[in-house]
Amino acid sequence: MSSTRRVVKSPGRALAWPLLLAVPAAVMLAACSKQDPAQGAGQAPPPPEVGVITAAVQNVPVVTELPGRTEASRIAQVRARAAGILVERRFTEGSDVKAGQVLFRIDAAPYEASQASARAQLARAEATLAQARAQAQRYEPLVKANAISQQDYIDAVATAKAAEADVAAAQAALQTAGINLGYATVTAPISGRIGRALVTEGALVGQGEVTQLATVQQIDPMYVNFTQPVADVMRLRQAIAGGKFKGAGGTVPVRVLLDDGSVYPVAGKLLFSDLTVDETTGQITLRAELPNPKGTLLPGMYVRVRLEQAQASDAILVPQQAVTRSNQGDTVLVVAPDGKFAPRQVKIASGRDGQWVVLDGLAAGDKVITDGFQKLRGATTVRPVPWSPGGAASQPAGAAASAPAAAPASAPAASAPAKA
After folding, report:
1. Can you give the chain as a three-state secondary structure string?
2. Compositional bias (Low complexity) at which positions (predicted)?
3. Domain ranges in the chain?
4. What architecture is the 108-183 domain classified under in CATH?
5. Residue 407 pLDDT more than 90?
6. How confident is the model at residue 281 (pLDDT cuts 50, 70, 90)?
């Protein structure tokens, strides 16, 4: 007896294969819909925008910035030239004093006594001189009448001359006593600002050595001493001799930057440059003079000196951010008319106001990349746009404007699978 098997087909298995085939198709469709339409069409992305400046030839002053220290134009040490007890101080520490102003007084009693004694010695010498002259005059007619010997007359004349010498010596002693008495009153040797008193009333000064009492410094005008490497000086002279620079004629202007970065409002002038090179540092010393009517500058301050030593003819100013400096040299990126960019080595003379003075490597009309360096990775060409320090925000604004333009294009593509 044979049995008959009945095969029953499951409805779930019958629908499994069509579903498995439909899922990959939907995934592929969604992937295709998310692709950028520009990439799907085979188009390359547009070249990035970069900020550029157009090189322009001009005459630029060559300004060198060097470290320096301020120094009083005149310094006088007030010392006690008379020995004795200091009895009075007649100035305010840190104030301005005038030449000849009384600063200290030393006990003058011993010097007054010495002056009185010298005056008495002079009076005695003058009396002796008067007697000697009278005797010589009385002997003159007697010797002619042979009433006295010739030797007596000669002795009388010699005595009168010796008395004259004694009077001269007494006068000198009296003058010396007056000078010593004057030293008991200590005056300011120059006009300027006086510092603190180094001794107080009651101190014994001038014994054994000349005691310093105070210091007066004249700070208007003020000196600024600074140094410059001799190699820089030689290069500057060679550039002037080669015609690249024009030497600064007449008065060389000097500007000073204070420690806080501010510029001292009054310009100064260069006084001299030393002819001797320091053997240990290889630098030469220069000195400038600046007016200081308000006493803003104080002796010993650290400053930066901006010195205009020459004029660079046919120079080009480039923002410092456009230059890459390394041991191999200084380079900039220059954009060609076809949009391609390439590095170019340049020669820099000095810097001023956030810019480098370029002497060689650039020509008028060259477009130098100044902003947008982060966009150059992987790019072969760029689209240059004018750049200025105040308009640096124009490039980010262009980049921000391109982002919303791409957003509407991507939104419909993302919604395509939903419609399918």
Report:
1. CCCCCCCCCCHHHHHHHHHHHHHHHHHHHHHHHHCCHHHHCCCCCCCCEEEEEECCEEEEEEEEEEEEEEEEEEEEEEEECCCEEEEEECCCCCCEECCCCEEEEECCHHHHHHHHHHHHHHHHHHHHHHHHHHHHHHHHHHHHCCCCCHHHHHHHHHHHHHHHHHHHHHHHHHHHHHHHHHHCEEECCCCEEECCCCCCCCCEECCCCCEEEEEEEEEEEEEEEEEEEHHHHHHHHHHHHCCCEEECCCCCEEEEECCCCCECCCCEEEEEECCCCCCCCCEEEEEEEECCCCCCCCCCCEEEEEEEEEEEEEEEEEEHHHCEEECCEEEEEEECCCCEEEEEEEEEEEEECCEEEEEECCCCCCEEEEECHHHCCCCCECEEEECCHHHCCHHHHHHHHHHHHHHHHHHHHHHHHHHC
2. 388-420
3. 108-183
4. Orthogonal Bundle (1.10)
5. no
6. confident
